[in-house]
Write a structure and sequence with these properties.
Spore Coat Polysaccharide Biosynthesis Protein SpsA, Chain A, 12 helices, binds guanosine-5'-diphosphate-alpha-D-mannose, binds manganese (II) ion
């Protein structure tokens, strides 16, 4: 049995791989650890996979996974671990920012815990020449993690760690593969995890460039939520709710726009007729249905995003029908509940009764809409 499987996720690291891999091999050999190195490359345009394959032809301990049509750091790590044969698994960046010389120490420390973090915050650790901005981001993210998750780790942002194979097997299916912070997933998903830290000084990237981008901050906050509260209320529903709240403002803006700019004022207006809204109200409603559709498609349900013009038209029509259905549910519940209030609790303030009834209507309509949209508009495999 191999003792240790080291995963190296890569994207455009062709200049780093031929330096890093031999260095790791030498260190692990010296420490008498039997190992395999698994490079997981997402079909890098710079041909990292080709360079890695050349190394693997000369050395059986080096394996390569070349993924086509798939991108992402966490999912690359998961795919690597999925085929790993070692008793312990490790992850290290390809760009030599992580100090591979502490690997033997990390593996030793793993003997009496579940996970060992290569840490910039532990003794003998440091951020090196990390730019002020990146340091600030990293520390803010760490603080957020500490507030949300009760994790006894000083550097939960690290991308450098080793875990027991058993930990991977236990939590693998709960891990969100769409992220950058896979360590956080392991720490957050396993109850009562016993982590340790080994310090190292973060080095500067020599070749290639970072893949960090703005959307990573956004993904990070969503990942924190998902790890902490996802099992109570799904992240998708939260996003759907946020979209809905934004939609309320769009809706009001649409009404204002139609009234003041398009001069729809008083058109079709029938004050005394129940349920007959003015044109401006309809305009606001449709505008918000449109903006909600776009936001839901690109954000809430981005994993099953509808693509192509024709399919989007069909999707929008479906979403529209469901939204109108929601409105009917809302109005019916409001009306029905209001009547009940008036008949059974005639002393209850009618002002409160109407708001309370409408709130119930809104909540039921939201839940119903969500259910319908998830199953019909953005059903998987569509
Ligand atoms: N297969 C694959 N697919 N690998 C990827 C991808 C991807 O989509 N994106 C990045 N990588 C690889 C890079 O080639 C590199 O080996 C490693 O993942 C880290 O990517 P960097 O672009 O160097 O990230 P970073 O230096 O900004 O962030 C690192 O430091 C953070 C600590 O501040 C990472 O280790 C983070 O995980 C870590 O939190
Ligand atoms: Mn890096």
């Amino acid at each position: 049995m191999i003792e240790f499987s080291l995963i190296i996720p890569t994207f455009n690291e062709s200049k780093n791989i031929p330096i890093l891999v031999p260095s790791i091999a030498e260190i692990l050999e010296k420490a008498k650890i039997t190992f395999e190195i698994i490079v997981v490359d997402d079909n890098s345009p710079d041909g990292t996979w080709k360079i890695a394959e050349e190394l693997s032809e000369k050395d059986d301990r080096i394996r390569v996974i070349r993924r086509i049509g798939k991108r992402g750091l966490s999912s690359a790590v998961l795919d690597g671990m999925g085929v790993a044969r070692g008793n312990a698994f490790g992850v290290i960046d390809a760009d030599m920012q992580h100090d591979e010389s502490i690997l033997p120490k990390m593996i030793n420390e793993l003997a009496d815990c579940d996970l060992v973090v290569g840490s910039r915050m532990a003794e003998e650790g440091g951020y090196g020449e990390f730019s002020f901005f990146r340091k600030l981001m990293s520390k803010t993210a760490t603080l957020l993690a500490k507030i949300f998750l009760p994790i006894p780790v000083a550097d939960p942002m690290s991308g450098f760690f080793v875990i027991k194979r058993s930990l991977f097997r236990e939590v693998a299916s709960e891990i969100n593969p769409r992220g950058f912070k896979i360590l956080l997933e392991f720490l957050g998903r396993k109850k009562g995890i016993r982590p340790k830290e080994v310090g190292y000084v973060f080095r500067n990237r020599v070749h290639g460039e970072t893949k960090m981008s703005g959307s990573i901050i956004h993904n990070y906050i969503l990942a924190l939520y998902d790890i902490r509260f996802g099992k109570y209320v799904s992240l998708t529903f939260i996003k759907y709710g946020i979209t809905g709240v934004i939609g309320i403002f769009v809706n009001l803006f649409g009404q204002y726009f139609a009234n003041e700019i398009l001069n729809f004022k008083n058109q079709g207006m029938a004050y005394r007729e129940y349920f007959k809204p003015s044109l401006s109200v309809i305009f606001g409603f449709e505008l918000s249905v449109f903006s909600n559709y776009i936001l839901n498609n690109t954000w809430t349900f981005s994993e099953v995003k509808i693509q192509g013009f024709g399919k989007n038209v069909a999707g929008f029509i479906r979403f529209n029908v469901i939204s109108i259905l929601g409105l009917i549910i809302q109005l019916s519940v409001w009306r029905f509940s209001f009547e009940i209030f008036q008949v059974n609790f005639p002393d209850f303030y009618p002002d409160y009764a109407t708001y309370l009834s409408n709130l119930m209507g809104i909540l039921l309509a939201t839940a119903g809409n969500y259910f319908l949209n998830r199953n019909f508009t953005w059903s998987k495999g569509d």
